[in-house]
Fold:
Amino acid sequence: MKPPPKFLAPPVIGLLWFGAGWLLRRALGLPPVVPAPWHFAGWLLVAGGLAVPILCVKRFRKAGTTEKPWETPSVFVAEGLYRFTRNPMYLGMAAALLGGAILLRTPELFAVPFLFLLTLNFTWVPHEERVLATQF
Structure:
C-alpha cells in the first residue's frame, strides 16, 4: 500500500485541524474555558511539544536514517524518546496543538489534538508500521 500523499504530511494535518478549529471558534464564539493568566501555561506545551520532533529528527539523523514518513528508513531507531513510544513526534505535535488550545482558551480547539492523533492513526501510523515490519 502506498503512503498517504506527501502534501498531507503530519505537520500539515495538524495545521489543517488547527485551522478548522480556529474557523469553528470564529463561527461559534464560545466563551473562554481557561482563565487568564493560566492560559499562558499553554506556551510550555507549545514549546515542549515542538521540541520533541526536533529532538527526534536529530536522533534519526544521528542514526543515519530518514525522518520523513513517506521514505523507507534504513535503521530502526529505539533510543531516546523512541524507548517509550513508537510515535513521539506525533505526540509532541499533539502537545503543541493542545498548548495552542490552552493559549487561545477556546473549547472548540481542545478537540484538535485528539482529531490530529485520530487522523494519523488511520493514515500515517499504519503505513509506518507496515514499512517497519517489512524492513526490520
Q: What stands out?
A: Residues 42-63 form the longest helix (22 residues). The chain is about 60% helix and 0% strand. The chain has a mean pLDDT of 94. The helical segments are 10-28, 42-63, 88-104, 112-122, 124-135.
